[in-house]
């Protein structure tokens, strides 16, 4: 009969007994404090509730108190002791790998192997046969690949990845135990697939590989009871009784064909004992051959020998025959006819769009197997098969969309034209705000727009009167600034504030003037340059001022006073860059239209070359000149002295000095024409 569980944990009850005992002159409520080292696990350490200190209230807890939270070990006489697998404290007994309490691992044996065969055909290939009663089953692919592991019971039931259907990783029940199927993350891990089960199994279990790419190797191991241990055969090429088209074969298939596979002795088992005398009653007999390793394209098959009784020829267990006399299997070719062409389908590409409806593609090739080699062939050889699709629609996720998250804000100005805004966000299909580029920018609602708050009130604004009179003596004026403004800054043009403009000047008088001479200046002229450095001038005259007015005086009358400047440099704004040019060159011709040139450059204010000048305003750097026709120079002394000078010209006598002088005009005209 089990002990009734206490309503409160045992350590909590032990600590609460000190609630009625004063500590340091005060009463506290105590609770267990378990954050101590393993050496203190059997002490009674209690913490004052609501305070940051704990106290060792007793050197040891009551016997039977658990050593710690979620532990099966208990405290006995202040020492932490655990119960053995025989439920006796301190016995120290643990189960061996065979599950025997205190055993020495002799009740079972470990069977292990490594399947490393090179395969060529896509489909199911048998790796190992696991007998009934197996425990601690572990089948693991050495490196991640596009191959898959599969489990089928001998009764033909698919446990995992059977019938060309790939199952998800998880827990699967079969042959009396539960299997854990693991397929590590395809991106972050390089580990391969695995099957794990505690066992024991209650019928024969066949392990297969669904081959798609070169085999990276599969390691398997399991434990069998020693009294009926069945050695798992190491995979050999002649044991691949699997057809890529028809799927995995089963033991029943072999029995129907009259072929049985005697399990060879694995490398990790001891040799069989010498045959007894009864072995002479049995011998090996050729019973047939294995299935062909390939359905086409040249495969192999091997002779199969069975143990029979010498007299009756009845089948007998293999261990009744002398294993040393068993003939070696003979290999012979089979199914040498060419394999039919097939469509080899590649992996799908990534979706063309990260969200919404996209397209993905894959490669589809017509291939044909020839003697353990698969080659690309013309697609016409696969015309007997329906061609798989090479493209397909896909959708990774629903696209994000624009959402307006707030109403329009008030207008930014109380009157006139201003702006208002609102919140616009790109929101995913689960409601999260994401980056704007995940939404269609062409469909983005505006988040800013102009707003008109109505006509602004306009009024006359003016400053205080100037403190000084414009004249040191006599009549002058005081001034102030007067502006027509709205009561708020606006981009609209101002309208008039009315005809009643406040005065901008008023008279003032600082008393009568004494006659004296002064320099008086006129206003500065306009700056000579619209931008950059320029110059400006003003008139400076010597005047005598009195109550009667002003009289112009000679300049020497004001020589004792500093004369104001009559010219100065000025600067209105920065040009940035403008065109400069040199003088025109001389004309290339003196008549009949020549041309002249000059150099034009774009320069900044500091005379550096720039490209920011407006090309449409560039001054011309070449122009025509002297368009008037050329007139021959008339020499009054050059004239014909004879009336028949045309005969001289025709006779080509102008080359002689005599005729040149006698017929000067005719010879000169002919020379200019040639």
UniProtKB/TrEMBL annotation:
Keywords tagged on the record: Disulfide bond, Repeat, Secreted, Signal
Biased composition (Polar residues): 236-249
Gene Ontology process terms (BP): extracellular matrix organization; proteolysis
Keyword Signal: yes
Keyword Repeat: yes
Record domain PLAC: where: 634-671
Molecular-function GO term, any one: metalloendopeptidase activity
InterPro entries: ADAMTS/ADAMTS-like, ADAMTS_ADAMTS-like, ADAMTS_CR_3, ADAMTS_spacer1, PLAC, TSP1_rpt, TSP1_rpt_sf
GO cellular component: extracellular matrix; extracellular region
Cell compartment(s), UniProt: Secreted
Region of interest (Disordered), residue spans: 229-275
Coiled coil: none
Protein name: PLAC domain-containing protein
């Amino acid at each position: 009969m089990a002990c009734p569980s206490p309503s409160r944990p045992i350590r909590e009850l032990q600590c609460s007994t000190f609630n009625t005992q004063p500590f340091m002159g005060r009463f506290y409520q105590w609770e267990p404090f378990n954050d101590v080292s393993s050496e203190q696990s059997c002490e009674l350490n209690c913490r004052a509730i609501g305070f940051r200190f704990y106290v060792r209230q007793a050197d040891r807890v009551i016997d039977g108190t658990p050593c710690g939270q979620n532990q099966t070990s208990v405290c006995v006489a202040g020492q932490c002791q655990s119960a053995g697998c025989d439920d006796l404290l301190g016995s120290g007994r643990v189960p061996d790998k065979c599950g025997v309490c205190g055993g020495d691992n002799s009740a079972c044996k470990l069977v292990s192997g490594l399947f490393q065969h090179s395969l060529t055909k896509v489909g199911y290939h048998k790796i190992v046969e696991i007998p009934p009663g197996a425990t601690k089953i572990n089948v693991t692919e050495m490196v991640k690949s596009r191959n898959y592991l599969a489990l089928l019971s001998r009764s033909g039931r698919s446990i995992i990845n059977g019938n060309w259907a790939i199952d998800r990783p998880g827990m699967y029940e079969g042959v009396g135990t539960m299997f854990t199927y693991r397929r590590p993350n395809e991106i972050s891990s390089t580990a391969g697939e695995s099957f794990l089960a505690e066992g024991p199994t209650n019928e024969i279990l066949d392990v297969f590989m669904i081959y798609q790419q070169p085999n990276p190797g599969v390691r398997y191991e399991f434990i069998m009871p020693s009294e009926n241990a069945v050695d798992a055969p190491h995979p050999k090429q002649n044991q691949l009784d699997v057809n890529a088209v028809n799927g995995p074969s089963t033991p029943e298939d072999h029995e129907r064909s009259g072929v049985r596979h005697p399990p060879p002795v694995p490398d990790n088992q001891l040799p069989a004992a010498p045959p007894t005398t009864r072995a002479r009653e049995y011998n090996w007999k050729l019973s047939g051959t294995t299935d062909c390793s390939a359905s086409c394209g040249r495969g192999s098959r091997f002779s199969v020998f069975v143990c029979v009784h010498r007299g009756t020829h009845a089948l007998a267990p293999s261990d009744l025959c002398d294993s040393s006399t068993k003939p070696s299997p003979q290999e012979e070719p089979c199914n040498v006819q060419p394999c039919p062409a097939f469509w080899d389908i590649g992996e799908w590409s990534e979706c063309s769009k990260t969200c919404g409806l996209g397209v993905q593609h894959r490669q589809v090739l017509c291939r044909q197997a020839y003697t353990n080699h698969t080659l690309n062939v013309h697609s016409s050889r696969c015309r007997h098969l329906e061609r798989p699709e090479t493209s397909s629609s896909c959708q990774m996720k629903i696209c994000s969309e624009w959402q307006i998250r707030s109403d329009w804000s008030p207008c930014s100005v109380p009157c006139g034209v201003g702006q208002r805004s609102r919140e616009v966000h790109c929101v995913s299909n689960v409601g999260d705000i994401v980056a704007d580029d995940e939404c269609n920018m062409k469909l983005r609602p505006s988040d800013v727009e102009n707003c008109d708050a109505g006509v602004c009130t306009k009024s006359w604004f003016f400053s205080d009167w100037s403190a000084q009179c414009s004249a040191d003596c006599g009549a002058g004026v005081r001034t102030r600034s007067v502006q027509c403004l709205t009561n708020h800054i606006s981009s609209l043009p101002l309208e008039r504030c009315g005809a009643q403009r406040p005065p901008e000047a008023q008279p003032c008088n600082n008393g009568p003037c004494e006659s004296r001479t002064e320099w008086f200046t006129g206003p500065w002229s306009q700056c000579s340059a619209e931008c950059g450095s320029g110059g400006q001038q003003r008139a400076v005259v010597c005047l005598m001022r009195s109550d009667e007015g002003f009289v112009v005086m000679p300049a020497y009358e004001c020589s004792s006073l500093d004369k104001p400047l009559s010219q100065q440099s000025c600067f209105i704004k920065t040009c940035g860059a403008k065109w400069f040019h040199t003088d025109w060159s001389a004309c290339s011709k003196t008549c009949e239209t020549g041309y002249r040139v000059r150099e034009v450059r774009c320069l900044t204010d500091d005379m550096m070359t720039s490209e920011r000048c407006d090309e449409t305003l560039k001054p011309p750097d070449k122009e025509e000149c002297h368009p008037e026709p050329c007139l021959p120079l008339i020499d009054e002394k050059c004239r014909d002295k004879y009336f028949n000078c045309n005969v001289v010209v025709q006779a080509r006598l102008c080359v002689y000095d005599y005729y040149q002088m006698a017929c000067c005009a005719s010879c000169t005209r002919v020379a200019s024409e040639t």
